[in-house]
Amino acid sequence: MVLEGTARALLRRLAVEQAEARVPSLVAAIVRGGEIAWFGARGRVDGEPPTRDTQYRIGSITKTLVATVVMRLRDEGRLDLLDPLDKHVPGTPLGDVTVAQLLSHSGGLTAESPGQWWERTPGVPVGDLVAALGPETARHRPGRRYHYSNLGFALLGELVARKRSAPWDEAVREEVLEPLGMRDTTPRPRAPHATGYAVHPWADALLPEPENDHGAMAPAGQLWTTTADLARWAAFIGGDTGDVLRPATVAEMREPAVVEDGDLWVRGYGLGLQLARHVGPGGPRRLAGHSGSMPGFLASVWADPADGVAVLWMANSTSGMRNLDTALLDILAEHEPPLPAEWSPSPVDEDLLELTGPWYWGPTPYVVRVLPHRGLSLTPVSGQGRASRFVPQADGTWLGLDGYYAGETLRVVRSPGGVTHLDLNTFVFTREPYDPAAPVPGGVDPAGWQ
Questions:
Q1: Does residue 226 carry a pLDDT above 90?
Q2: Is residue 41 within 8 Å of residue 314, measured between CB atoms?
Q3: What domains appear along the chain, each with residue ranges and CATH number?
């Protein structure tokens, strides 16, 4: 739980949002350590304050669950992210777009489906949707740029249905929702649930919005959920993946695939997850999650895996909300800044100790440090340049985990006298700048330093 003063500050921010944005009802939560640490609600649903069990429609947050099943198929070897769509859903005019491009909205597809505004009308079967696609469905060259596409996730939903021989929502329920205990997340609303409204821009009046089964477009935004269930999903995005996916796979989904806002790089997209960078009282945060909107509903869920905290909110209004998620995170950081993890020593193998300390790539000083589980880090002393972490391999080498050397092999070269140098994908690191005793590519001038 949060402290009393923190709870009051969070509730006040929520109350200001509900009043000033004129939202019929609004719920929000802070998730910390996988549990709801704070819950707040304002407004009314059927005359009563909404609770943790009141359903709201979450719109495009649905995409994150569909993407999770796609990644399960990848991890099972049933597909490759570089596979063209045509390999699994043949017959569309978009067959050369890859699974990864659909997941990251970089396939160049049009944003919406052909025909009427799909979010306010009953859906059509997938066969009718595919038949309506034509050359104009491709708006950009695949891979060229970020262009959000609801249509792309409709096609991913069909991919899931064909690979699982079951409707996409059944696959999501059986493979994601039930294992995580998210039993109140459903394709259609169940009581108690909020009604979706549009708020008149110049009067305090409401207009009910339609709610339909969207057929082939449903994977783009069909689902309803509760605060309790969405809190579990926030923990999943942050790394508490249960048996649904490996944490490494969710970390892969959180990696930036495209940048949404050009040079700023404040918002981007991974594999089925939106990404955001935010600087507040707690310092810089790198968030992963998704926003959602459907006529009558807005929602948002964001996790900070580094801090072990997440935020979510849901509202039954077509428009009007502001940056409530980051505002709540800032209040939490201001009132309850996290304590650093307590340091304690850990056993280190003797053969790793001799690798620690300064190394030189040419004249540039680096330092090697030992990480848990026999890992290593290689970092420029200046703090600027190519840095990576490495994990040990069975053959005695180390594999780059991140940074410039991700996927590259680090070899420790020894002689009878000890370690002579490090070989990192043709780069030679020596104990002295351009050590003449080491096999520096191109050799070392015999006159030495002058």
A1: yes
A2: no
A3: 4-335 (3.40.710.10), 350-430 (no CATH)
pLDDT, tens only, 274-326: 999 999 998 999 999 999 999 999 999 999 999 999 999 999 999 988 889 99
309-315 vs 297-304, strand pairing mode: antiparallel
**Separation of alpha carbons 160 and 169, rounded Å:** 9
pLDDT of residue 340: 86
pLDDT given for residue 262 in this prediction: 74
Other Cβ atoms within 10 Å of 10 Cβ, number: 24
> What's the chain look like in SS3?
CCCHHHHHHHHHHHHHHHHHCCCCEEEEEEEECCEEEEEEEEECECCECCCCCCEEECHHHHHHHHHHHHHHHHHCCCCCCCCEHHHCCCCCCCCCCEHHHHHCCCCCECCCCCCCCHHHCCCECHHHHHHCCCHHHECCCCCCCCCCCHHHHHHHHHHHHHHHCCCHHHHHHHHHHHHHCCCCCECCCCCCECCCEEECCCCCCEEECCCCCCECCHHHCCCEECHHHHHHHHHHHHCCCCCCCCHHHHHHHCCCCEECCHHHCCEEECCCCEEEEEEECCEEEEEEEEEEEECCEEEEEEEECCCCEEEEEEECCCCCCCCHHHHHHHHHHHHCCCCCCCCCCCCCCHHHHCCCEEEEECCEEEEEEEEHHHEEEEEECCCCCCCEEEEECCCCCEEECCHHHCCCEEEEEEECCEEEEEEECCEEEECCCCCCCCCCCCCCCCCCCC
pLDDT tens-digit readout, 179-205: 999 999 999 999 999 999 999 999 999
Instruction: State how far the alpha carbon of 428 is from the alpha carbons of 262, 416, 437, in Å.
Output: 36, 19, 12
Against a cut of 0.85, is the pTM above it? yes
Task: Give the residue-averaged pLDDT of 73-82.
Answer: 98
Instruction: Say yes or no to pLDDT of 417 above 90.
Output: no
Peptide bond into 114 cis (omega under 30): no
